[in-house]
Every structure is written in C-alpha cells, then in structure tokens.
Amino acid sequence: MQTSDLLMIRQITINFFFALCLSVLNGFAQPSSGVYPARQMLLRDEGLSKLNYIDLAHPERNYYVSVPAGRDLQLIGQGRVMLGTGKGYEERDVKTGDKVAELTTYDGTIAARRLRNGHVMLVGLNWQGKKGIVLLELDKNQTVQRTINYPEFNYVRLIRETVEGNFLITSNDRVFEGKPDVSIVWQAQLTKQDKAQHAWQAQRLGNGQTLVSGGYSANFQRFDRKGAFVDSVSGPSIVNPHFFAGFQILKNGNWVVANWQGHGPDHGGSGTQILEYTPAGKLVWSWKQDAKQQSSIQGVLVLDGLDLNRPHVEDAQGKLVPN
User: How far apart are CA 121 and CA 115, in angstroms?
Assistant: First the structure.
C-alpha cells in the first residue's frame, strides 16, 4: 500500500472519530436527540404560564395554551390533566388543552393532587386559619373531608401520597413523611447550598430510599430509610443545571426532570430543560425547548405508554400506574 493511501485512510479515520464525538455531544442538546423520536409530553411552562403538549413525531399536534400560575400536573383520567392553581385547580383536555372543569374558591392554594381515593388534596401554607403546612382534602362534591396540619414547617412545595397513605412533602431544605394523624415518621435534610434550595418534589423508591428534586441545588438527591444522604445526580454543565423541579420515574426506571431556568418570559434560550437520567446518574436523553414557544419549564409528564383514560398515581417503585 502506498504512503498516499495510508494517509488517506488515516484522515478518514480521524474525520470519522471527530464526527462521532460531535454527534454524541449534540445528542445532549438537540430537540429530537436520543432514542425517543415519537415521545409525547405534557409540560408546564412557569415562565410563560402555559400548558404545552409536545409530540415529537407529529409537531403539528403541539399546543401552547395559557393557564393560571400554580404548581404540579397530574393525569386524572377521562383524557384530562389536573393543574394546581392559586385558587384550587383546573382540569384540561390532554389532547387539546381546553379547560373542562375548575375549582376557584380556595385562594392561597399552592398545589393540588388527586389521591388514590379519588379525592383532591389542596396544599397551602399559613392557610385556612392554621399555622404551617395545611392539607385540605375535598371529596367529589368539593366538601372538606379532612384538614391535616403540620405547624412546625414554614415552607411547602408539592406532596406525594405513599402507598401506605402517608404524605411525602418538600419544605425548602427538608423533605418529610407525615401521617394523616400529623405525626412525622421520616425526614431528611438536603445537602447544604449557598442559597435556599426550595426542594420541589419527593418520591419513595422501591428500595426504601427517597428521591428528591433539589430545586436550586440543581440536582437529584437520594436519602436512605433513616434520612441519611446517599448521593446526588446532576449535569453535565452543557445542559446548564439550574433548578430541578417536577420529575417522573419512567417504566424503565429512569428519571425525567424539568430543569427550570428562572421566572419570566425570557429564558427559552437558557439550558436544556427536559433531562432523562438513569438511576446510576447517566444523562441518556434530553430535549431542548423551543425558545420561541417556551421560557422556563417547571413540570413534565411523559405520556408514552400511559392510558389517558385512567387516573394515575405512583406505585411502590415510584412509577406512574393506573389507579
């Protein structure tokens, strides 16, 4: 083989190597990267106060509808998603975004969650004449069935009902498990950061550990059965980890999280805002928002394989299952 042939082969090899590296790096930031070209998602864009439906295979089905400010989103059956608002909640059609029901009589609501018994739990702070975290359970007729009060806590984000009927609640730099009788049976302290963490969501895992999206910690944090810190997951820097907010544990065990970038309408070009990690901490898929349509995504629901006609709750593994 002549020298010129060897040089050509060498150059082709080098070019292929650099192209492969570039492809891997781009895979972290491109809207349709990874192995889910047909993925469908519901997103809550806090920066623009909108609900988004995103179909990667059929973008003509996408919508971006204005909704009231609030927290959390949940599939509640009949093709509906429930959104917590500052006065209660809204129910919207998943495929169109149209509002089909609402509750607006509980000013000061921070979040709302449908329980396994079909009732709705509203979350507030220093609310309904009580100090601290207040949970208000409403039946299908919107009649109050229970008021649960944890007065020693001065901050609250979201709640998640455990399979035992307790509540995992995030309270800034702490997460705790409270029973309906208001006793605290477990709690953990998030690792220290320079500013208030505003921890967002907690989910109990099948091994007894608890997974928390750490807010301004910009990571996931895991804690054991005794509340001791186990490890954290974040990065890489190319996605600009800023505030880990709502997340979902997928059927394959991976974690999809909204990487919120800030209040207001001008953050659409910042970071990569939907991230999927393995439990081992590897970023295996991401979706970069459209800066013309989104600003700062706070909540995410991956709809792949879910029956929209059934209400969904988290099982003992932390995964969404029909209720």
Answer: 7
Q: What one-letter code names the amino acid at 255?
A: W
**Could you say which DSSP state residue 226 is in?**
T
pLDDT band at residue 273 using 50, 70 and 90 as cut-offs:
very high
pLDDT of residue 34: 59
Q: Report the length, in residues, of the chain.
A: 323
DSSP one-letter code for 182: S
Listed residue (173, 175, 172, 130) closest to 151, CA to CA: 130
Cα–Cα dist 89/259, whole Å:
23
State yes or no: pLDDT of 268 exceeds 50. Answer: yes
Q: How far apart are CA 265 and CA 256, in angstroms?
A: 23
How many other C-beta atoms are found inside a 10 Å radius of the C-beta of residue 305?
Answer: 9
Non-local CB neighbours of 179 within 8 Å, separated by 6+ positions: 166, 167, 185
pTM: 0.89
Helical ranges in the chain per DSSP H: 3-26
**Distance of alpha carbon 132 from alpha carbon 152, whole angstroms:** 6
**DSSP result, 122-135:** EEEES-TT-SSEEE
pLDDT at 21 over 50: no
